[in-house]
Input
Amino acid sequence: MSRIGNTLPQTILIGMALQLGTPAPAAEADEPRRSIQVELPNQGDNPIKTSWPGVGTWFWIAGEFKPEGYKPFIDLYARHTNIRLLMTSIRHPVWVDDPVVHGQIKAAAAYARSQGLAMVMDLDVRLARQKF
Output
């Protein structure tokens, strides 16, 4: 591994940390893991660590489409992370142009805002080609 001065390049350290990161435990054995948290070594006193909002990803599955099913995920991230922007995408067989799906996304965005989070929904028009 090449060194710059006496330290490893930051990109290598980040890459190593991502490879060594431990996935969060799944709620159930057969439920896919949906997030990962990586801590870089020696960053506890780094003011840069929390000087900008974090960005997280959120992949909606069946649970998010239940009544208020989005609340546990938003509550978890609002309370326990510095993430303030959620980039979201659907991983469930529903259509983004369905009024029920649209209503659920709209309600989740409003709830996220009330918890200090912003939410951006990924819209892939190829998934609703007939409507566009």
About this structure: The radius of gyration is 18 Å. The CA atoms of residues 17 and 40 lie 6 Å apart. The chain is about 30% helix and 15% strand.
